[in-house]
């Protein structure tokens, strides 16, 4: 914990310094004299704002339709841009891809996008935090909220210090889903958790996916609820992220200032909506992740498309310098067999989408292309909201990707603005 003396009461407490928390903090600080405490358990905000920092500025990308109308979202996106000051990526010459896609019942969305890069995101986050401090917000980094009181408007920190509040906004993100569920149980908020995205991350040479030269992060929707997600090019890398009990792969790219490695990676995800008897998307994702851990000896797995098509597992020696003329950027992934560890229905739908994509952008399924597994997006607990401003109980708001009010940086920030407006209008 920072060497920071905290008060025993704040008008507003915001838990989590991701984009949803930052959006709420700026809105309140810029429009009131309320005392605000922003709490973050890490040294710096994590998640999408820290990793790659890719931003989408076109509705409905990132905005769950059950919570957002187009006019409201577009208006709030202007506020988001005023703080993040995006430099938009160009989008050119995609008509040929769009026309090919239509013939295959595939949609390519035209999205306004900005990209910061993992190497520059920390500077952006630190700048935003300093701005909040200058606005009078108390920012407590490396400070963990242990729990909410069951009946009083009070939180208890990991050092047992207690702080009371009038309003609280919870935006801890997807990684802390179990903590969020425990707090909702404590304060009597009902919720559901039956949706999860399961998929792979695809890595290839940029020459085999030339669409990225014209469209930085193509948003492509396939039948059977499969989509591309988070495309990285330029200086692009696969990373392994630790979750509770397993690893998930993800993709990063550095800013354009860095020397390119001429590789591309993107996720192919299938959305799974569970019903009885298994109703927890978080637990389903964890089970699949843990199974990969068992089969790989404690890591994630990868397979070349050439081996997959031949129905044989990839081995360390098949990742060679002949036909497979680039090395995997995630060196600690284990060469293995996707079909042994991925549910058949999910694999079938993703492979079908990849074949369609290969018809739209020929080269995707070059034998050297690498398929990494698993990429798991346990997007949200879905609380029962009392109003459109994400209030779950008088004085309690839950927002961001971890609450199902957003999927991505800009919509999460907008969620924070929406909750903050409700507090300001009291």
TrEMBL record:
Domain of life: Bacteria
Record-linked Gene3D superfamilies: FAD/NAD(P)-binding domain (3.50.50.60)
Protein name according to UniProt: Pyridine nucleotide-disulfide oxidoreductase
Naturally occurring in which organism (per UniProt): Halarcobacter ebronensis
């Amino acid at each position: 914990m920072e060497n920071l003396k905290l008060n025993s009461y704040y008008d507003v407490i915001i838990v989590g310094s991701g984009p949803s928390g930052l959006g709420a903090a700026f809105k309140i600080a810029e429009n009131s004299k309320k005392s605000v405490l922003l709490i973050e358990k890490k040294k710096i905000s994590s998640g999408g704002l820290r990793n790659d920092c890719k931003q989408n500025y076109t509705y409905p990308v990132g905005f769950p339709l059950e919570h957002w109308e187009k006019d409201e979202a577009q208006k709030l996106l202007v506020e988001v841009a005023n703080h993040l000051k995006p430099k938009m990526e160009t989008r050119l010459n995609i008509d040929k891809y769009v026309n090919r896609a239509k013939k295959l019942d595939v949609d390519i969305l035209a999205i306004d996008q900005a990209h910061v890069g993992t190497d520059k995101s920390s500077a952006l986050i630190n700048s935003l935090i300093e701005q909040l401090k200058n606005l009078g917000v108390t920012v407590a980094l490396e400070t963990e909220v242990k729990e909410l009181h069951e009946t009083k408007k009070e939180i208890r920190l990991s050092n047992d210090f207690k702080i009371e509040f009038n309003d609280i906004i919870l935006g801890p993100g997807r990684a802390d889903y179990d903590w969020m569920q425990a707090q909702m149980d404590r304060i009597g908020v009902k919720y559901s958790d039956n949706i999860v995205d399961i998929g792979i991350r695809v890595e290839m040479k940029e020459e085999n996916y030339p669409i990225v030269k014209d469209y930085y992060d193509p948003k492509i929707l396939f039948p059977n609820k499969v989509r591309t997600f988070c495309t990285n090019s330029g200086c692009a890398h696969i990373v392994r992220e630790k979750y509770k009990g397993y690893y998930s792969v993800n993709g990063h790219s550095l800013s354009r200032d860095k020397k390119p490695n001429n590789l591309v990676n993107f996720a192919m995800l299938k959305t799974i909506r569970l019903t009885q008897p298994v109703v927890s998307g978080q637990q389903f994702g964890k089970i699949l992740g843990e199974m990969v851990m068992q089969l790989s000896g404690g890591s994630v797995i990868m397979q070349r498309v050439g081996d997959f098509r031949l129905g044989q597992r990839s081995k360390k020696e098949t990742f060679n310098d002949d036909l497979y003329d680039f090395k995997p950027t995630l060196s600690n992934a284990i060469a293995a067999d996707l079909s042994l560890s991925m549910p058949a229905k999910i694999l079938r739908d993703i492979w079908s989408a990849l074949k369609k994509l290969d018809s739209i952008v020929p080269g995707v399924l070059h034998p050297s292309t690498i398929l990494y597994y698993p990429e798991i997006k346990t997007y949200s607990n879905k609380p029962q909201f009392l109003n459109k401003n994400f209030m779950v109980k008088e004085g309690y708001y839950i927002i961001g990707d971890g609450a199902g009010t957003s999927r991505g940086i800009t919509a999460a920030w907008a969620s924070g603005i929406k909750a903050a407006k409700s507090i300001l209008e009291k």
